[in-house]
Amino acid sequence: MSEAIAAGAPPLAVLSRPRAPLALPLLAGGLLLSLLASAMTGPVALPPAQVAGILAAQFGIETGITYTPMQAGVLMEVRLPRLVLAVLVGFGMALAGAAMQGLFRNPLADPGIVGVSSGAALGAVGWIVLAGQIPLLGALGGWLGAYALPAFAFLGGLLTTLVIYRLAGIGRPEAQTFMLLLAGVAISALTGAATGLLTYIANDEQLRSITFWTMGSLGNAGWEQIPVLLLLMLPTTLGLFALYRLLDALLLGETVAGHLGFDMRRARPLLVVLTALMVGTAVSMTGIIGFIGLMAPHIARLIVGPGHRRLLPAAALIGALLLVVGDMVARTLASPAEIPIGILTALVGGPFFLFLLLSRRVGP
Amino acid sequence: MSLIAETLSVHRSGRALLDEVSLSVNPGEILALLGPNGAGKSTLIKALSGDIGADSGRRLLNGRPLEHWSSQARARQRAVLPQELELAFPFTGFEVALLGRIPHHAGPPRPCDREVAHETLRVVDALHLARRTYTTLSGGERARVQLARVLAQIWEPVEEGPRHLLLDEPTAPLDIAHQIGLMATLREIAARGIGILLIVHDLNLAAAWADRIALLHRGQLVALGTPDEVLTPERIHRVFDVRATRAPHPVHGRPWIAFHGLAAVS
Lengths: 364, 266
What we know:
The structure holds two protein chains of two kinds. Chain A is an all-alpha fold. Chain A has one domain (25-37, 46-359): ABC transporter involved in vitamin B12 uptake, BtuC, CATH 1.10.3470.10. In chain A, 75% of the residues lie in helices and 0% in strands. In chain A, helix 5 (69-103) runs parallel beside helix 11 (225-242). Chain A is globular, with a radius of gyration of 22 Å. By secondary structure, chain B is of the alpha/beta class. Chain B is 32% helix and 28% strand. Chain B has nine helices and twelve strands. In chain B, the strands form three sheets. Chain B has a six-stranded mixed sheet, with helices on both faces. In chain B, strand 11 and strand 12 form a beta hairpin. In chain B, helix 3 runs parallel beside helix 5 (139-153). The interface between A and B is large, with 34 and 39 residues.
């Protein structure tokens, strides 16, 4: 009997142990290793010593390691900006995915589901096709320069979010999340149709550009993107991390979150805008790279559990890791050609999604 | 100081779901809310917990109108167990109980929050579920873990005033042993100075365990008092449309109701 009690009723000390206490440092270490591996991989050979030497030289540290100017150029101008972009976009998409799954209380929610991705796609394609035909748009684009495409993609994502947010505000509080999901489905269909129409009237050159962008790619990475990305991502990341208790409470439903002391009329829009901003920013840089926001939080949940205090950083690190490794695979699988990363993540993510759907783990 | 409804009315689509209901949930008492389906029992719980607004009348929580308290201050003074609960994420039983401590800590849970969650799981006899994954539990097991969660929310006294617990049909998913176990647990909780308002459908369960009974019929409060005062055969006939006979319970002497058929259609 006493044995049964000992086995059945765990003492507080046992219950207080965190799940996988070393998960976050190990994931961070794994991410660093994957970054090094990816930096070394490609047509120009870059052994680890040379990577270290080139990086040290950037900070004015003389290591005595010899490398060619070619190696330095490839690392600093090609691989490194691309890796930083992969880390930031993977981090952001995964964080947005984790937050959205909490907001919708649906483990199958993906950033694409609220229609921000397709809205951003419409913005970008609209710019590509229409800039040459509408003088005002062309002038604005000329002034924005290299920022024009991300700016319009971001604008499209933001506008979609605002429309969806207005639609989702209709109805009773408990029905609003449901409305949000349905509005997302409808908006995705609409923006998809508009994007299709623009694709239809595009010329050959525009078509190639559209294809490159809608498939999702890290191929046009450059240092000039990074400050914009950091500027937009830093406040959103801190904001989402700060809301971990709200996200935990929301898993019990919006009414219960209210019972636990959260003012949902204020909390819901805040969460919606933060996640939408995060997705819009990430998508505007690389196009639609799907399923990172679905896969990373799932893997993170298996390791650290559903509590958002550790789930959010774990998911973000896994998202960055997934995109860095995915990009390395995309670059080397059909070398010297490159598989668009969006296609690769969909190839892996699609079956992953179906597996989740078929397994009973996702609940009712 | 208590939780009070003053001539509270709630209208939806021109119909009065609650029609000038006045009652108070006092510290240390179990007040059972009875009534047939659609009488407005859940509406009253939702209005008293602040989930829905009132069209007229007042709701007072410890001397102040409900809406004058911040959401967080409200959360420390009253906990609510809704009838339907969704949770599709793999928290452990202990983690679910710990969620009840959210109104008490600004950051991650403190050691004292863990102690409370552990204690409330023990009180509801669910400590053996502490390490189990919530999504794999049976309906009755989930109900007990959720009860531990709402208890953890109002476990220790707060300076704002007495605490209250609102429960919407907590006995519904439980077998008879756990129904009685739950009522005994609620007795202990009430003894800590917590005012309890609960919806039940079993008249005998209410008669045996409640201090007072509030009887709702078509949105109106038709009776409020001790089980002995409220549960008369005539009133049961009128409100529930069933024929009933009443006798003293052979063991504890409280009203004991036997039903014998639906009321005659006249």
